[in-house]
Amino acid sequence: MDCDGVVSGVRMGEASEEVHVLAVDDSLVDRKVIERLLKILACKVTAVDSGLRALEYLGLDQHKIPSQSNGFVEGLKVDLIITDYCMPGMTGYDLLKKIKESSTFREIPVVIMSSENILPRIDRCLEEGAEDFIVKPVKLSDVKRLKDYGVGGRINKRKLPDTTEPDLSSSPPSDSSSLLSSSPSISPSPPSIIDSPIRRLKMTTATHD
Amino acid sequence: MEVGQMQRQWIDYTRSLFIEGFLDAQFLQLEQLQDDNNPDFVVEVVSLFFQDSHKLLNDLTVALDQKSVDFKMVDAHVHQLKGSSSSIGAQRVKNCCIAFRNLCEEQNIDGCLKCLHQVKQECCLVKNKLETLFRLEQQIMAAGGSIPLMELSF
C-alpha cells in the first residue's frame, strides 16, 4: 500500500485532496511507468488495461442497468484521465468520445498518449476535446505538465483553497524535491496556454480572432 | 574489488551501452524514477519488458509460420514490441521494430523472417547487457556503495 509519508513537497491538504488519475494502457510496461511517474508527483493512480475497463470503472459501461450507466459511482472522484491511443478493441480516441458524451465526466480533462507523432491524429483528438497529447515514451516532464490540468480542473469546480501555504502536517517543501518545487501544485489559475506545446502548435496554425 | 573500482566499472559499462546504442535517454529517465522507497523500479520494469517481449516474439514466430500470413496481426505485435522497448530505452530493439514494421507494410515475408531473427538477437543482447549492469549494481550496493548518477553528455 502506498505510504503517504513518502510524499514530499507542497500538498493541497489531506489525502482526499490528492489528484486522482485514471491511466489507461494495454501495455503492462507502460502502465508501470506511467503509474510511477504519476505517483512521484503525489497523484493517486488507478491503472486499467483497456477502454472498456475504464468505462466500467467510471460506471459508464452499457451492461449495467440504465440508471447505473450515467456514471454515478458512489464516492468516485477522477481528476484526470490519461489514455493510450492505440489499444485493441476500443482505442483511446473512442474512449475520449465516450467520456465527452457523458454528462457526468465530460468536464474531466483527457490526455492522449501515442508512440506515433501523427499530426492529423493529434488534431482529431484535440478537436474531440482532448486536453493534451503526449508522444511516447512518456517522461517526467510530460507528466509534470499534466498535473496542472488535474489540479486546475478541480479548482474550477470548487471554491479556491483559502491558503496557498503547504499543509503543516507534512514536511516543508525542500530543495531536494526538485520534482515538485518548480511547479506549485496550489495554483489558482489554470495552466498557461503557452505551457502546452500542443496548444502552442494550435495557436500558431489557427487564424487570429 | 573495492567500491570505487566497481563504481568506475559501472560508469564505463553504462557509458558503453549508450555509445553502442543499446540504451537511450529513456533508460536514464527510468533510473531517475528510482529512489530509496522504490529501489527496484528499473529492474521491475525491465523484467516486465522481457516477459512481454518473450511472449510477443513467440506470437510473432507463430504468426510468420502460417501458410497465409496475417500481416496486420504481425504488425500489431511488432507495434507493441516497439512501444515497450521504447518505454524502457532499449534503442536497438526499437529500431529493429521500426524496420520490421516497414517490411510488414510491404508484406515481405522473407524480410520479416530475417527481421524477426534480428529482433530476437537484439532482445537477447540487451537482456544480457542489462543483467550484467544490474549485477554490478548489486555488488556495489552489497559493498556499501551507491550507484553513481549518470548523465548523457555525449
Key structural traits:
heterodimer; A: 209 residues; alpha/beta; Rossmann fold; 7 helices; 5 strands; globular; disordered N terminus; disordered C terminus; B: 154 residues; mainly alpha; Four Helix Bundle (Hemerythrin (Met), subunit A); 6 helices; 75% helix; elongated
How many helical elements of chain B? 6
Count of structural domains of chain B? 1
By secondary-structure content and strand pairing, the structural class of chain B works out as mainly alpha
By CATH reckoning, the class of chain B would read Mainly Alpha
Give the neighbour order of strands across the main sheet of chain A: 2-1-3-4-5
Write the layout of secondary structure elements.
The complex is a heterodimer of chains A (209) and B (154).
Chain A: E1 20-24, H1 28-40, E2 44-48, H2 51-58, E3 80-84, H3 92-101, E4 110-114, H4 119-127, E5 132-135, H5 140-157, H6 178-181, H7 197-205
Parallel strand pairs in A: 1-2, 1-3, 3-4, 4-5
Helix pairs in contact in A: 2-3
Chain B: H1 3-19, H2 25-32, H3 41-64, H4 71-88, H5 91-105, H6 109-142
Question: How would you describe what is shown here?
Answer:
Chain A has 209 residues and is an alpha/beta fold. Chain A has a domain at 18-149: Response regulator (Rossmann fold, 3-Layer(aba) Sandwich). Chain A is built from seven helices and five strands, in the order βαβαβαβαβααα. Chain A has helices spanning 28-40, 51-58, 92-101, 119-127, 140-157, 178-181, 197-205; strands spanning 20-24, 44-48, 80-84, 110-114, 132-135. A five-stranded parallel beta sheet of chain A has the order 2-1-3-4-5, with helices on both faces. In chain A, helix 4 (119-127) links the parallel strand 4 and strand 5 (132-135). In chain A, helix 2 runs parallel beside helix 3 (92-101). The longest helix of chain A is centred in the last third of the chain and has 18 residues, at 140-157. The radius of gyration of chain A is 17 Å and the shape is globular. Chain A starts with 19 loop residues before the first strand and ends with a helix. By secondary structure, chain B is mainly alpha-helical. Chain B has a single domain, classed as Four Helix Bundle (Hemerythrin (Met), subunit A), CATH 1.20.120.160. At the A-B interface, helix 1 of A face helix 2, helix 3 and helix 4 of B. Chain A: This is Response regulatory domain-containing protein. Chain A: Keywords: Phosphoprotein, Transcription, Transcription regulation, Two-component regulatory system. Chain A: The modification 4-aspartylphosphate is found at residue 84.
